[in-house]
Write a structure and sequence with these properties.
The complex is a heterodimer of chains A (about 220) and B (about 80).
Chain A (H helix, E strand, L loop, with lengths): L2 E5 L6 H12 L4 E4 L10 E4 L19 H12 L2 E5 L1 H8 L6 E3 L7 E9 L15 E8 L3 E3 L2 H9 L3 E5 L12 E5 L5 E4 L17 H11 L1
Parallel strand pairs in A: 1-2, 1-3, 3-4, 4-11
Antiparallel strand pairs in A: 5-8, 6-7, 6-9, 9-10, 10-11
Helix pairs in contact in A: 1-5
Chain B lengths: L1 E8 L6 H12 L12 E6 L5 H16 L5 E7 L1
Antiparallel strand pairs in B: 1-2, 1-3
Classes of the chains: A alpha/beta (about 220), B alpha+beta (about 80).
Chain lengths: ~220, ~80
């Protein structure tokens, strides 16, 4: 599986994502600067966490209009797998590749801790390494992770199995609607999620539950 | 030509920052505040002389970047 990681000014988890992809695939992903309008031929594009453009105007708003994002959108249309983590999720919603929006956390606090996620749909490229209903311990680190969409959109996401992960029990760190932690697009080749699976791949991080997301992808895409 | 854009949250969208401002006002002794909603104000200096064209352009800017129309409304004042 060949992958590329898009890097914006202010991205800060691209090296973590790189380590996770290298560990799972044995290949070093291509690091693509946001000003490049070209992307190498890859099976997976990852948009990492951070504070692209300092979160100015709105989180991910300006990054969504970077030259590289036009090509990311074109690849997503062709069925290439795209994974947006945290700021990456925000970028994908601003770019219109995923519905809804990420609002300021209801508590107004930047929350940085491990949460319990429940895998809602294990029948996809991204979640094939998990069992349906499996719970995972994964860290979050965000101030704007409160997922919001109109009721009709949320209903449609539910009906079409587009909810990837939910915060389990009383684990919801940001007030997101229906405890949504991550969603797929219609075709399920694009996943956006607020928690950081790339920071749960080594015992030293307190959890290795993130590994199966990446190894599952490698299996599905190789 | 100046364009003044006000961006506000749609009704029903949670505004915890507005709530925080309300509480802070309360602590300062301003008790009769029923609700607070906060938004953004953006001023643009356009190299455009035609009012209608300016309005059209700023409207496009709002739809494309300045406002997220899932959660925000915008109003534009030209001149």
């Amino acid at each position: 599986m060949k992958s590329a990681i898009v890097v914006f000014p202010g991205s800060n988890r691209e090296q973590d994502a790189r380590a996770a992809l290298k560990q799972a695939s044995g290949r070093d992903p291509a690091m693509v600067w946001h000003r490049d309008s070209e992307l190498p031929d890859v099976d997976l594009i990852l948009i990492p966490g951070g504070f692209s453009y300092g979160d100015y105007l709105r989180c991910g708003a300006m990054a969504a209009h970077s030259p590289v994002m036009r090509e990311v959108a074109a690849r997503a249309q062709k069925g290439v797998a795209v994974l947006g983590v945290c700021n990456g999720f925000q970028v994908l919603t601003e770019a219109g590749l995923l519905p809804g929006v990420l609002l300021r956390n209801a508590s107004l606090k930047f929350t940085c801790r491990n949460v319990t996620l429940k895998v809602e749909n294990s029948q996809t490229l991204f979640t094939s390494g998990y069992a349906a209903g499996q719970t995972l311990s994964v860290p979050v680190a965000h101030g704007d992770g409160n997922y919001f969409a109109e009721e009709s959109t949320l209903d449609r996401l539910e009906q079409r199995g587009q909810i990837a992960f939910r915060y389990d029990g009383d684990s919801n760190p940001n007030g997101s609607a229906r405890n949504i932690a991550g969603i797929f697009n219609d075709a399920k080749n694009v996943l956006g999620m607020m928690p950081h699976p790339e920071n749960a791949i080594d015992p030293l991080q307190g959890s290795t539950d993130g590994r199966a997301l990446f190894t599952g992808l490698v299996q599905a895409l190789s | 030509m100046k364009a003044k854009v006000h961006i506000t949250l749609k009704t029903g969208v949670l505004d915890p920052q507005g709530r925080a401002i309300q509480h802070a006002l309360g602590s300062l002794g301003f008790a009769n505040v029923a609700d607070v909603r906060q938004g953004k104000y953006i001023e643009l200096d356009l190299q455009e002389t035609d009012q209608a064209r300016a309005r059209e352009v700023v409207d496009a800017m709002c739809k494309k970047l300045l406002a997220n129309t899932v959660i925000e409304n915008y109003s534009v004042e030209i001149g």
